[in-house]
Amino acid sequence: MPEITINDTTFVYTLKYSKRRKTICLKIVGPHNIEITAPAKTHKIDVEKLLFSKFDWLQKKANILRTLAESPLNKAPCNGQPILFLGEQHLLQIINHSTLEYSVKQKENNIIISLPAHPNIKYDCTTLLEHWYKKTATKILIEKTRDWSSKLGVNPTKINIKDQKTRWGSCSSLGTINYNWRLIMAPLAIIDYLVIHELAHLIVPNHSSEFWQVVNRYCPDFKDRRNWLKVNGPLLMKFLHKERKA
């Protein structure tokens, strides 16, 4: 793969062409790896000129991915691994127990997966933990949505908890609210912001200044909460993705 060195930093990149693209798209996929999609017949020299002009942005994104890769938090669902739940770091404990069924529960600063000591049954802790996260997220997000709906004076038609790769929430034109279950790893204040954000779309269906006025009315520090999600979102999004694909 071609390489480019900018200010003593070397990046490896892949370059693909698309007839549908009108501009060059850059995607940072690793601390030193870039995926580039460019319009057909784009010259390589124009691509590299863009890379030089975007160096500060590239370096910032690469540093985030480097920090993310080095962090032990939310790395894998293994015994003794630190993981996030409602914005707090918990230690994952996986224990064999003389029970007939498995269980997952939160106790103080621990998330405990209890497995029946059965020699002929193998349990997938990744699946068990994800199921518990989703179940807990469903309960909290439905309660939060009902509470804030009353305050905003809106009435969503349906609430879905989904596994979304890039979005935290959405609101359809039919009034359906969708949430990413990984929000359960964020602090309650961040969850409140997301709920208010999506419900505000039932009043203003776009991101105009009027929309943000509605959000600000119920969440005056929404910019700080939105920034928390922007900074920490990749840490939440990475958890259980890789393991589930394996």
TrEMBL record:
Database matches in Gene3D superfamilies: Metalloproteases ('zincins'), catalytic domain
Annotated protein name in UniProt: YgjP-like metallopeptidase domain-containing protein
Every YgjP-like metallopeptidase domain range: 22-230
InterPro entries tied to this protein: UTP_pyrophosphatase-like, YgjP-like_metallopeptidase
Taxonomic placement: unclassified sequences, metagenomes, ecological metagenomes
CDD domains registered for this protein in UniProt: M48_yhfN_like (cd07344)
